[in-house]
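Running log. JK asked me to keep both predictions on one page so they can be read side by side. First protein, sequence followed by its C-alpha cells:
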Amino acid sequence: MSVWRDILDYILPPRCLQCGRPLHENTGLCKTCFADINFIVRPYCQRCGHPLETDCADNGQMLCGRCLRRARREFRLSRSAFAYDEGSKRLILNFKFNDRTENARFLAQTMYVAGADIFAAGVDVIVPVPLHFTRLFRRRYNQSALLASELGKLSGCKAETFALVKHRRTRPQVELSGLARVRNLRGAFSVAHAEKIVGKRVLLVDDVLTTGSTLRECARVLRKAGAKSVDTLTAARVI
C-alpha cells in the first residue's frame, strides 16, 4: 500500500488544507499556514482548558476564575487544540460547510495531542455532538462524527456516533447569546443507547467551543443517562 501511496502522491501531490499549495509530505498544512495556527499550550486552566496569563500560571495547575466560582460542572476536563481566529477559521469553516471532509484527519491529530491528559486518565467511548436529522440531511455529514471516528483510530477507543441524538430542531447558537443559548438547547438531546454510556468514561467531541452551552447540555444528558464521567475535546475554541 505504501508503494501505491507514493505513486499516487507523485501523480497528485498532497496540498495544504488551508491555502492549497503543494506539499512535499502529507503533513496537512504548509509551514506558513501551520505557523498561523495559534495552538493552545500551557499555561491553561486545568479544568476548562482556557489559556491563562503566563504570570498567573503555577506549574499548569491553576484554575480560571470561572472554574473557581463554579462548584458543579457537567464535565470533568475540557481541552481544545487551537484558537478559533483568522489563522484557523478557513480550515474549520471549509471542513464544516464546504465538504472538505479530508480536513478531519489533520484536525483529529491536533486534538489527540491537545487531549493527551484526557486519554491518559482513561476514555472508554468517544461520542460526537449530534446534528438534527434535517441539518444532517442538508449537510450530508456530521463533522463532529468524522472527528470522533478519526480520534477512535488514533486512540484505539470506540467511537459511538449514534449514542447521543438531537431530537429537537433548535435555532443556530450563533444567533443567540447568554441564557438564550441555554434555553435553546434544553431538552434537545437524548441518549439513544444507554447501554453504551452507563458506567463509561465518555469523551464528548465537537469542532468548535464557543460559549460551551452545547457541550454542557450534551454532558448533562450523558451524565443523567449514567456516564461515569464526561470530558470534552474540540478542535478549536473561541478565546
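And the second, directly underneath as requested:
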Amino acid sequence: MVWFRKSKVENNQSPKKADIPHGLWIKCPDCGDIVFKKGIIENHKVCPKCNYHFRLDIRERIKMMFDKKSFKEFNSNLASVDPLGFNAHKSYKEKLKEDQKKTGLTEAAITGEAKISGHRVIAGLTDANFIMGSMGSVVGEKIARAVEKSIEEKIPFITVSGSGGGARMYEGMFSLMQMAKTSAAIAKLHQAGILYISIMTDPTMGGVSASFASLGDVIIAEPKALIGFAGPRVIEQTIRQKLPDGFQRAEFMLKHGQLDMVVHRKDMVQTLIKILNFFEK
C-alpha cells in the first residue's frame, strides 16, 4: 500500500501569499491602467500611457516649479475663523481642523516670493486637498496681499490654481466678496504694468475661475484640466442637453479662446522662463 502525505490545500490551509508592499501601483483615473507608482513620480506625476496629469499638492508644486530652496512664504499666520457659526452635519471649525491635520496646511493657499531660473517672482498657490482649494476670506486676503507685494517689489506675479471648490460656502458672503477683492487687486497690478501669469490646473472652478485665475496677462493650463464656473454635470441637469465631448477641459477652453496655451507639466518651467525672459526685455 502506498501512502501519500496530504497537501496543505487538502488540509484546508491556504498557501502562503507573497508579501507585496502596499502602494506600489496606482490606477490611472483616465485610462484605467495600473501604473508603477515610482514611474508616475519620476514622470512629474503624469501617466506615461495616457498623459493624465495627477493632482499635485502645494509642496510638490513648489518643489517642481521654483529654484531649490528659493520659496520664502509670507502671511503664513493667517487662519480662517467661523464668521457665520456654520454648523450642518459638521461644523466649519471641525472641517478646518480636519483639513489642517490632513494636509499640514493652515489654509488652502500659500503665498510667497520665489525664483524661477533666477527670476524673482511673487507666487500664490492653492491646494485642492484643503476644502477642495475653495476661496474663503483668508485665501482671498493672501492673494490680495501677494499682489500688493508684487506691485511693491515690481516683480511678476504668478498663481497656480487648484481650486475645485470655488467660493467657500461656509463663509457665505464673506467668501463671495473675495472674488471682487482679488479682481480689484489684479486690476491695480495691470495698472502698474506688472506681469501676471495664471496657471490653471485640475480643477479650477467656481469663484476662483471667475476672478483672479482668469485675469492673467498670460493664462496657461495643464492638459485635460477641468476649468469653468458650474461643473458639467450641473450644466447638463440645468439645460437638459448633452454637452460636447471634452467640454470645460483645457483643450476645449483653448479652442474657444479662454486660454493662451496648454502646457505639459514637464515643459512648464521652461515655458515660464521663456515668458519671463520675453517680458524682461
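Observation for JK regarding the second prediction: The CA atoms of residues 201 and 228 lie 11 Å apart.
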